[in-house]
Structure formats: C-alpha cells, structure tokens
Amino acid sequence: MDSSSGKHQLEYKGYMKGMKNQSFISLGHNGWVTSMQVGEVTEGDQTKEFLISGARDRSIMIWDIQEKSQTDSDKEWGVPKKVLKGHSHFISDLTLSQDSRYCLTSSWDGTLRLWDLRKGQTIKRFVGHSRDVLAVAFSPDNRQIASGGRDKNLKIWNTVGECKFTVEQNAHTDWVSCVKFYQDTKNPIVVSASWDKTIKVWDNQTMTLKHTFVGHKSQINTLDMAPNASYLASGGKDGIAIIWNLVEGKFLGQKEVDCPINCVLFAPKNYWLVLGTDHGIKVWDLPSKEFVVDIKASPIDADKQKQNAPISCTSLAWNKSGNLLFAGFNDNYIRVYKIVAEK
Fold first, then answer.
1. Element (H, E) at 313
2. pLDDT of 6-42, one tens digit each?
3. Which of 42, 83, 140, 176 has the fewest CB neighbours in a 10 Å radius?
4. Which residues constitute the domain of residue 284?
5. For residue 71, is pLDDT > 50?
6. What CA–CA distance (Å, rounded) separates 273 from 179?
C-alpha cells in the first residue's frame, strides 16, 4: 500500500444500472451484487479498464467504466458490454486471471466455471463439490484454482477441471466461505476461512497446515490480502474486522461495528481497510485506528425500498489506480465512490 498524505474521504459519484438500445438490452443486475473485480483489456494501442460483476440473478456482467466528467456525479455510470449466463443458481464469487482474459466463477449450483471473456463463453465446468460453492481463487501464476463450499471442503484444481487435492487433514468443520492465494510466488500459501470461526493458512506445495487464526465469534464471511504486503483482513457475522500477519501467523488488531461485515477490501493507495456491512460502508484508517468514513447508501428506487431498511453492501472493488471504489449492494445496484481530499 502506498501512503497518501493528508486526509481523504469517499465522495459518491453515481450508480451503475444498464442500458437499452437496438443492439443491446441490459437493465443491470436483478439480484444482490455478490462479487466484483476490475480488469484491463488492450484495444489497439489503448489499455482500458472494465468491471466484472456477479449477482444473485445468476448472471455475470462486464462494464465499461471509463471515468466520467466532473459534471456527471449523481448520475448513471458505466456501460454494460456483455452479459454472461450459464450458472443455474446464485453467483457467489468471481476472480480474474492475471491478464484479465479469463474469469472464474463459483455458484450455489455446485459448480465452478472458467469463462473466456473475449468470446463470452464458458470453456470449462468444474464439478466436484457436493453442495453450493461459495468461493474461488486463481493462484498467482493462474495454474491452480482453489475453491470452498458448503460441503466443508477446500479443493485445489488445475485449469482443465481436474480436482488435484481435497483437504482432509486439519480440515474445516463447517462451510468454507472464503479462499485466497498469497500473491508472493516465493512463498506459496493458500488461505481459507469458514463458518467454523477459523482461518487456516496452508502451504500450497504440500497443502499442510501452517497456521490457524482464531479470533472471530461467529461465521467468517470475507477475506482480503493487502497489496504488496503480508497482511490479511477478515470480517464476519460478529461485526468484527481483524488484521493478521499472514506469514508470521500473528494477530495485529481489530475493529468492531454494530452489524455483520459482508466484505473487506484494502485500499491500494491509502492505509485503509474498507468494510462493506449490513448498514453500508465504513473505512478503517489503519494508522489512526479510527473509522474515517461512514456511508449509508440512499435508495435509488425509493418505491422499491422497504421503509427505513438499511441497504447492505455485499461486494467491493477498486479501480487500478485506487481512486475509484465500486460497491455492490443488496438493492441490485453498484454505486461508485471517489477518493477526494477532505474539505
């Protein structure tokens, strides 16, 4: 993470819904936005960023997210380019390959899918979990895939759909809700989190257990790894966010909110951990150990929103430069926020 001087806030810039014209019809997601990531695609001599999102409507959407002008705040953002369909139940997680050409998705239909994003097609289905798959991750070299599910299994696959390993020794005793690969190829590590309230750190070469982190009081919903650092963040139904030293196996600190935490995400440019909660978004400033941002999302379709019901943040993603935050919510919208200097 880079250090940014001065104090900053998140400013609401608009929302992402969809479009309708003669050649393409998409009205955006029609279900909770459960997972997102920003990738890059090269067109000619230009590199453009895109957002890919998965939702409970069983679809994956690819969005053009070129930044709009200063006058476009509080308006619709993003242009949907493709809608990918194939799963028969909720999309639970997604992850992009390093070159952003391929996407892995996991679903409550019990399968993983590998997608060719240029063709907009599934090129491989992964069948092996006996129940809903909740999480998926690519290894740093994109040669391995990790998945976790409601069958309590952590599985390692190759890219042609063969399950090479299922953890049995020291395995989780409840649903495996999150999986991540450590991005340092010199220190191959897989991390899994579970509804059994534990986080387990595995040696990726032997799949033997290195550390078990204990600190949560209830199910763990989310994990994130700090860019270019050995910090791991976790969040759960207990409303606790914890930061750990992944390599040394140490607890570093925690903050608590008054509702479940659904997603956590380190900021690339600021020493921040962003929390997506049942009540909105909070930003934990790590140096000061204080919350510096507290966002309650306003209804976009007021007539559809239950009176006084909070809008829950269910997924988070930064753009590549780390100045735009995309947040998915349970009202089916993606909202866009920009880091700005505190006034």
1. strand 313-318
2. 588 999 998 987 655 444 455 689 999 999 999 998 8
3. 42
4. 8-341
5. no
6. 19
Please report whether residue 128 resides in a domain. Answer: yes
Give the mean pLDDT of the chain. Answer: 91
Which CATH number belongs to the domain containing residue 322 in this structure?
2.130.10.10
Sign of the dihedral defined by the CA atoms of residues 312, 322, 224, 41, in that order: positive
Q: Nearest to residue 151, comparing CAs of 177, 179, 175?
A: 175
Name the one residue in this structure whose structure tokens are 């002008």: 69
Distance CA 224, CA 3 (A): 19
pLDDT confidence of residue 258: 97
- Whether 90 maps to a domain, the answer reads yes
User: What is the token pair recorded at 261?
Assistant: 């935490």
Long-range contacts of the stretch 130-135 (C-beta < 8 A, 24+): 132/89, 132/92, 132/107, 132/108, 133/92, 133/93, 133/106, 133/107, 133/108, 134/92, 134/93, 134/106, 134/175, 134/176, 134/177, 134/178, 135/92, 135/93, 135/106, 135/176, 135/177, 135/178, 135/179
Q: Please indicate, yes or no, if residue 2 is contained in any of the structural domains.
A: no
